[in-house]
Write a structure and sequence with these properties.
Rossmann fold; binds pyridoxal-5'-phosphate; alpha/beta; 9-stranded mixed sheet
Length: 539
Amino acid sequence: MSENPTVAYFCMEYGLHPEFPIYAGGLGILAGDHVKSAGELGLPLVAIGLLWRGGYSHQRIGEDGVPLDRDDARDLSGLVEPTGARFTVPIEGREIPCVAWKVSRYGNAPLYLLEPEAEADRWISRRLYCGGPKDRVAQEILLGVGGVRALRALGIRPSVYHFNEGHAVFAGLELIAEEAAAGRTFSDGWAAVRPQIVFTTHTPVEAGNESHSLDLLMEMGANRGARREELERLGGNPFNMTVAGLRLACRANAVSALHAKTAKAMWRDVSGAAPIEPITNGVHPGTWQDARIREARGDLWGAHQAQKGELLAEVERRTGVALRTDRLLVGFARRAAAYKRSDLILRKAERIAPHLERGELQILFSGKAHPQDEAGRQILTNLVRMARRYPQSVLFLEDYDMRLGQLLTRGCDVWLNNPRRPLEASGTSGMKAAMNGVLNLSVLDGWWPEGCEHGVNGWQIGDGSEEPDPHRSDERDLEALYRLLETEVLPAYQDRARWNAMMAASIQMSEWRFSSHRMLREYFASLYRAPAVEQRATG
Ligand SMILES: *Cc1c(COP(=O)(O)O)cnc(C)c1O
């Protein structure tokens, strides 16, 4: 086997470019950065995904503060090239004809996007992560089973299959079915394909580790000929996609050092699981770091103020409110999920109001909730209600997407992040901010323990200890956040030389360590390293 095996990378979503909305959030952005770095570094990787014609919903906030979703089917045909590859995907006993499109216009490694050929079958790939369990399983069969078949139709024979998240694990069942067709039992087939499969787990949050009923998988045909008890041996009952991923793979990774520790403990009792190692996420510099910052080593402040001006112009265009470029601007943009505590900084009016009223602090929020996540939608409603109390200093920007992500992580002064540790597996928006000299003010969760030098390149909220009681954890972190703001962040902002030095330290800390180029090098050096060869040597 060659030193750099051909990797087939499977992911449900890709955030490659703002014009191409086939992503929902962090996972997709990460996958987009992964394939762009692979392309730029010339690494042997091809990627598999689905062509989501419905894209991801636009989300506005109604007068009453309730998020409104609007499907906005975009014409993506100018962005993809036909490959001529045709294959079928078995769903509910029918072989559905499918095609693969190719995307390579973003400097990325080849990305193949699958879709049913007939309009009538396109319900499967209409809208990312939406629908009931049956739609989800159909999407996952298209990605996993369809992915393996598309590779065959394209004449690509990967030596490593990387399931990025559990969505792709049915590819493992298809690979086992290929072995069965050659006369192997399920167990022997599983053992034969395992050395070629690697898996990445992305979240310690329970709901992010999807399960399906065994009956549904059997009915839909996701089992690919495996018996019910064989499926259960792989993924348990109900069938957990992460458990199946860990058991199908010979090697697995988590997305930061802290997340590896958390994930090892979380999946400790899964027999036959692949060992989990840390590979910390990174972001694609060409996409996320502004060229003017990269070149402006002498006058970072000047370059930053230009970016801040651009952000504030866009904010004014969208909201009619003119924020000030000479006052501290804190940014917070996250998917609305309870553990991320978007509204934390606003929870004690008596502490935060004086700073907002004096006009020394301005806060920009953004984020979407999943259309079917009531708790997440409620968080946005609360946030918007609070923003309306301080209309000149606290703003909520609708429709968080890559474009807005770029503007915010370049133009804010401080990037706030306050998840309940250890639930943020990595987080990547803080890396984008760091690369642009936007200083992180964050709980020691995800990637931040690896990057933070307190008071030098950003600030840590709290001491990194974990408080299992959510109420006490919120109280404690909120107090630490207010104290830091008042005693360190606001005073530092008045000291131009100090701020400039911190910006430089932030950029220097992040440029290589939190770049997706470093991340790709690590995936090739460890996760993708000739698994079959090593397996034979040790087994
Ligand atoms: C970077 C990015 C994310 C992920 O950021 P986190 O810090 O992981 O929450 C999500 N959505 C968009 C649009 C992004 O640009």
